[in-house]
Design goal:
This protein has 390 residues and is mainly alpha-helical. The protein has one domain (23-335). It has helices at residues 2-42, 47-69, 79-106, 109-115, 119-129, 140-161, 177-186, 189-216, 220-242, 255-282, 284-287, 291-305, 312-386; strands spanning 166-167, 310-311. It has a two-stranded antiparallel ribbon with strand order 1-2. The longest helix is centred in the last third of the chain and has 75 residues, at 312-386. The protein starts with a helix and ends with a helix. 40% of the residues are buried. It is a multi-pass membrane protein.
Length: 390
Amino acid sequence: MGYQREGGMSCQALKKAKPFLAMVSLQFGYSGMYIISMISLKRGMSHYILSTYRHVVATIVIAPFAIVLERKIRPKMTWPIFLRIVLLGFLEPVLDQNLYFLGLKYTSATFASATVNMLPAVTFIMAIIFRLETVNFKKLPSTAKVVGTVVTVMGAMVMTLYKGPIVNFVGGREQSHHKASTESADQHWVTGTLMLLGSICGWAGFFILQSFTLKMYPVELSLTAWICLMGMVQGSIVSLIMERDLSVWAIGWDSRLLASVYTGIVCSGIAYYVQGIVSKERGPVFVTSFSPLCMIITAVLGFIILAEQVHLGSVIGAIIIVFGLYTVVWGKSKDAPYSKGIVLADEKGTQELPITDTIRSSSIITTTTTTTADSNNDAANSEVSKIPLA
């Protein structure tokens, strides 16, 4: 019995930890995307072509699994569902990724990943607009969510408006100091930041619309395959319009192929699927609350691999953003007991009804049986009284 209890408790703990482990793993995947994409873009690859090839790979990888594994549970495709999928294929694969790659090209991998920390705040605002979240200033958790959102926006403004001196963590990088500062001076930080903010708005809208679409089309693999397919089609159209030179479509055994395959499998195929499952269980705000971990991982990798220089404004803004973000997450976590209590109450109520009916029916049967037995006894007594005495 003891081993069974311990096994049951460990399985239950693992089940509760699955969403956290999934989202943490995705942040490592996104960190690799930032570094690999930055390398391929610096070597001349068009971000329009990268986004298109990314979803070509994702469609090829995910579609067979969706066709085979969900063939019996896939609901019928309708026009409202299809139009939502088309919009999903535009918001993240086309709008978000192209604006993000432009912002990444104009800034740096560390700055881009740090700016993405605004994603939970923007998602929270959109969730309030679409009534996925509620705000009550009389309760501390709701106030914390609002204050955290404002602080996160302030941190992003600090990163945008204040660049500051270069923070040199390791003294042995003086040879590349002048070159890096010259390159950063030529970068369009304000324009790149505005593009990154537009990318974040598109990404947050994607999460909100995905949560609504999964209620109408609750098959995560099929939805992922459709989104990748629509992203591939729309991305191809945008690429043909923006890139007139057909030579940019050429790809070889180099960083371009690596970036396309890696981002397609990890950051589109797997990410869309995992985010859909976690969003269905915990909500879109929970999904977007792990971006600071990605910032930390990317900052370390960017400093080591790309020899990027970190500016003081990015450090101060990132600290403010992380503080505001976890204020929002704390407020969100305090809302969970209320919703769980409501769900448990509903489940308890639905379980009590049949039990009550069973008790009532059993009592009726007992009363009927007793009445029948009494009438039989009375009839027997009357028969005995009619027998003549000798």
